[in-house]
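Format notes (please read before filing issues)

Several people have asked whether sequences and structure tokens are stored in separate files. They are not. Every record keeps both together, in the order shown below: the sequence lines, then the token lines. Line labels are part of the format and must not be stripped during preprocessing.
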Amino acid sequence: MAFRISHLFLFGILLVSLVLIAEPAAGFSDPGIKCIGTCSFPCDKKCTQDCNSRCVAKGFKSGYCLTQGSVSNCCCS
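Then the structure lines:
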């Protein structure tokens, strides 16, 4: 009985720790960043130059490529 209780206790601690250290899947904490779409290239120098041009054309100061998971987004600030 005590062995079963300790397993449940350890599982609970593991579950709580995973929830507390998990990172958010989407969104930004910086309100000054706006993503305007996905990049047609992987996040590299070419993507950043293309994204910067798109952002400047839309009236932003600068743009850069940002990877979120497996998606490369063009984000402006």
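For reference, the curators noted about this record: The two ends are 58 Å apart (CA to CA). DSSP finds two helices and three strands in the chain.
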